[in-house]
Amino acid sequence: MSVSVSDLSIEVPNEEEFDLFRNLIEKELGIHLSSAKRVMLGNRLWKRVMATKSSSYRNYYSFIKQKENSDELAQALELVTTNETFFFRERKHFDFLTNELPDYFSEHKNLKVWSAACSTGEEAYSIAMTLEQANYIHSWSIMASDVNTKVLQKARDGIYLDQRTQNIPTEYRRKFFQQGIDDFSGYIRVKSDIRKKISFFKCNLAADFSHLGLFDVIFLRNILIYFELERKKEILERMVEQMKSGGLLFTGHSESLHGLVKSLKCICPAIYVKQ
Ligand SMILES: C[S@@+](CC[C@H](N)C(=O)[O-])C[C@H]1O[C@@H](n2cnc3c(N)ncnc32)[C@H](O)[C@@H]1O
Fold first, then answer.
1. 146, 195, 221, 231: which one is catalytic?
2. What is the rounded CA–CA span in Å between residue 54 and residue 252?
């Protein structure tokens, strides 16, 4: 089967080929692809099949499995991640940080935050601006990670299209962003003092992350939906190990943790405290 997108004709992997990639993606990233994602997989990978001059998806699969082609494997895996994000997504979480976080953490605390699937950085910067503006936390630091190195580079750059920043309150825009000029007209950039306080790094949640230490607050939003129940539970259990007692976990509003981890108590929609 082939699907035509403008003038580019994209081959769709057959079921056998799809299963090869599906198992590989599940093993490497923990992401589960339902059978309905066969065309989507073709859309994401076909260009690489062509670029590597592979004669089929099966051929491309064999290519990326070879040790010397690990860069191509990394590239293929990055292409299957979905990186949709925006500033102040799920606004209630940021209202909580402004209004209710002080009830959970004392004023002079050095608050350690982890944005655990940060994509292009909007989530981490939204947290940073909120904490900076709220001004009740004496000091804070944010670690922000993703498995995809391309989105991480965008996050580090902190440059965003003006039209993608409507959700940012006007006061924050004025205080925390520079307006681009000349070649960067139409873009805004997060000011360097905020950028410097966030460390962006690669971390695969399907692999070990126990070396990262303990956090007061973890944002794990809009990522659990990609995992099957057992994987989700296993990642959550390891995530809770990285939380201080009394620490908070924020998940996406559509991601229920109901009954998955006993030590997490829901205190607001999609906000949990470690007991
Ligand atoms: C939909 S975005 C969510 C971004 C942000 N947390 C939000 O809620 O707007 C999901 C992110 O998870 C990342 N991701 C997917 N699998 C991952 C894994 N195994 N480890 C770490 N990050 C992963 C993707 O690269 C993507 O950037």
1. 146
2. 38
